[in-house]
């Protein structure tokens, strides 16, 4: 049996490369696996699962599942799969089909998260600052909107 590989949509390849530290970019994340995991968590939070219908990117190439495991993402992938599928048997280490389903959920959540991130990061010069603002907004939430300015509180 071959090792599973996590694929990236051809549409999102340039964003993944821009978010990764490299020669041409000063991205936020060290590896493509880090970007994919962040995007999958973000897409999973908003239940945005998008299948890879528009083709698979060749650069960056599909990432071996072993890379994710070596970076400590094994359990986050399993928890994401449980949360999005509702199936607790999906974390079985002995079931090859369960691992295939986990990888498919990871790919779809990452694709959805990358689309959300693309909308959030549109027009940004430095992605690191925009990502920090995004994380702060997620952590602290937004304050209630005031529809009118109330002058009575100054009396």
Automatic annotation (TrEMBL):
Q: Which InterPro entries match?
A: DNA_S_mod_dnd_assoc_4
Name listed for the protein in its UniProt record: DNA phosphorothioation-associated protein 4
Species annotation: Euhalothece natronophila Z-M001
């Amino acid at each position: 049996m071959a090792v599973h590989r996590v694929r990236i949509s051809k549409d999102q390849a340039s964003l993944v490369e821009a978010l990764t530290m490299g020669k041409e970019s000063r991205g936020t994340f060290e590896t493509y696996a880090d970007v994919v995991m962040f995007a999958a968590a973000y897409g999973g939070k908003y239940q945005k699962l998008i299948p890879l219908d528009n083709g698979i990117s060749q650069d960056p190439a599909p990432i071996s599942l072993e890379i994710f495991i070596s970076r400590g993402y094994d359990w986050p992938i399993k928890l994401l799969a449980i949360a999005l599928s509702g199936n607790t048997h999906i974390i079985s280490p002995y079931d090859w089909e369960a691992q295939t389903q986990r990888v498919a959920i990871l790919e779809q959540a990452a694709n959805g998260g990358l689309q959300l991130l693309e909308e959030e990061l549109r027009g940004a010069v430095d992605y690191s600052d925009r990502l920090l603002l995004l994380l702060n907004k997620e952590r602290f939430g937004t304050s209630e909107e005031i529809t009118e300015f109330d002058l009575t509180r100054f009396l």
